[in-house]
Write a sequence for this structure.
């Protein structure tokens, strides 16, 4: 939408997007017969009319056609590559914070197979640009990760450094001189499209659109202005160029996404299927307010132009949008990849400030309860097997909390050994596990 709006605003209509799907080819299969056209259906108060977006000119399944992806990244005409592949798509080694060189697909990509990981595809595309003399390139991560640009640069350079010396040296040199990795923060709630959404769009549009997307009216994109070459005039489409993206991303992760995760796990523990149902529960909304006001806000620096109180109120209002149907199961997926960025940052900072991270601990305890009460096959998390192995046979606050605190790829040794944090986790876990919703209501409102 931003790219199309930028073209409409400037009359520079030379831009087009090759969309690449990764693990599943579903979206490519939906888009190809529609010439890349898709509808954006805003839902909720202030929603715009249906919008047909035409900036995608080609859709490719990266899983089935990795060489095509490398070709497109290497093409002279390509200026920008954006990534939106979820946290786990980056193949980060949680112990080093760099590329997981033990990952089987990363190893395959390094060995010269047609690359299957996002980082492998980007690195191989850049390597070909270096060989063919194509111009500079900008790689833009749009995922909910702090310092997502810097991180992506680190991972691509780690991939390059792990290649044989004769490949590695020229690639690292070319990367240094020709490729930039600006950080960005993207904010718009976009739940997975359901069959019901497609039927509703068909009724409104009079046409069947298999690739329709449902979204809230709110939309924000903050971008670091560090581009190696040309780019669409996204600022003309409402994107904000800022030199302080890190603060925007931290605010989003520790306020919005943290509350989203808290509502997802409290909702999953109490039979609430959607985020709007969960935030409709007074006690849960209150817990989010207190986590943001008492744990997160006092321990963070906000970017200029962002008023903390207004932002927190707006976030809860957005979650209450009943037309979105954002499921607690989807927001609660991949918890092992998310809680560290969304909740443990705040828990650590609050402990460091000499206070109890009471509310962040509630959200983490609710995640622990979700993990311990879901069968491994049903747990939508890349670490499902590892978490299952860590869990004891008998599951109670006294056994589950220390067992999960022992998973080092999620909890560092210092946080795991903090008795204040562990006590809070056990306290909340016990209430969720034995007293259920009534107990939670009582403890949250009076606690
Ligand atoms: N949906 C939202 O509301 C929203 C809003 C802002 C930011 N985001 C960011 O966008 C990301 C994607 O969200 P989504 O709702 O589109 O999720 P999604 O599950 O619908 O799509 C995820 C995409 O990532 C790919 N992927 C998944 N696992 C991968 C792996 N291991 N390697 C490579 N690719 C992989 C999938 O194939 C798919 O193309 C999120 O993780 C988040 O960081 C989402
Ligand atoms: O997309 P994920 O899976 O990283 O996280 C789920 C949601 O918290 C997230 O997508 C929000 O809806 C989004 O970040 C709002 O801008």
């Amino acid at each position: 939408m931003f790219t199309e709006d930028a073209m409409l605003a400037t009359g520079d209509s030379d831009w087009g997007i090759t969309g690449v799907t990764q693990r599943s080819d579903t979206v490519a299969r939906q888009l190809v017969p529609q010439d890349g056209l898709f509808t954006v259906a805003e839902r909720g108060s202030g929603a715009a009319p249906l919008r047909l977006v035409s900036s995608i000119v080609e859709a490719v399944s990266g899983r089935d056609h990795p060489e095509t992806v490398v070709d497109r990244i290497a093409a002279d005409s390509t200026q920008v590559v954006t990534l939106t592949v979820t946290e786990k798509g980056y193949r980060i080694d949680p112990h080093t914070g760099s590329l997981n060189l033990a990952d089987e697909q990363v190893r395959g990509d390094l060995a010269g197979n047609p690359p299957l990981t996002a980082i492998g595809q980007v690195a191989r595309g850049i390597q070909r640009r270096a060989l063919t003399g194509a111009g500079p390139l900008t790689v833009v991560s749009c995922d909910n990760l702090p310092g997502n640009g810097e991180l992506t640069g680190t991972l691509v350079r780690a991939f390059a450094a792990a290649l044989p010396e004769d490949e590695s040296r020229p690639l690292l040199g070319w990367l240094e001189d020709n490729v930039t990795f600006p950080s960005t923060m993207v904010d718009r709630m976009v739940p997975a499209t359901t069959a019901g959404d497609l039927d509703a769009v068909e009724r409104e549009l009079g046409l069947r659109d298999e690739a329709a997307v449902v979204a809230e009216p709110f939309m924000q994109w903050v971008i670091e202005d560090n581009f190696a070459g040309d780019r669409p005039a996204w600022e003309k489409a409402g994107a904000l160029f800022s030199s302080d993206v890190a603060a925007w991303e931290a605010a989003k992760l520790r306020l919005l996404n943290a509350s989203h995760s808290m509502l997802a796990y409290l909702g999953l523990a109490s039979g609430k299927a959607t985020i709007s149902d969960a935030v409709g529960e007074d006690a849960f909304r209150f817990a989010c307010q207190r986590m943001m006001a008492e744990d997160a806000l006092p321990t963070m620096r906000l970017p200029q132009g962002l008023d903390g109180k207004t932002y927190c109120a707006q976030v809860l209002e957005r979650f209450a949008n009943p037309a979105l149907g954002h499921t607690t199961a989807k927001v609660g997926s991949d918890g092992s990849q998310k809680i560290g960025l969304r909740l443990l940052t705040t828990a650590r900072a609050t402990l460091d400030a000499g206070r109890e991270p009471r509310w962040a601990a509630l959200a983490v305890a609710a995640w622990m309860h979700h993990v311990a009460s879901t069968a491994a096959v049903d747990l939508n998390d890349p670490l499902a097997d590892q978490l299952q192995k860590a869990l004891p046979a008998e599951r109670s606050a006294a056994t589950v909390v220390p067992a999960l605190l022992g998973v080092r790829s999620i909890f560092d040794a210092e946080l795991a050994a903090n008795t204040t944090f562990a006590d809070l986790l056990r306290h909340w876990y016990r209430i969720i596990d034995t007293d259920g919703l009534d107990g939670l209501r009582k403890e949250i409102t009076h606690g």
The pocket of nicotinamide-adenine-dinucleotide (ligand 1) is lined by residues 21-24, 84-89, 118, 143-144, 186-190, 192 (CB under 6 Å).
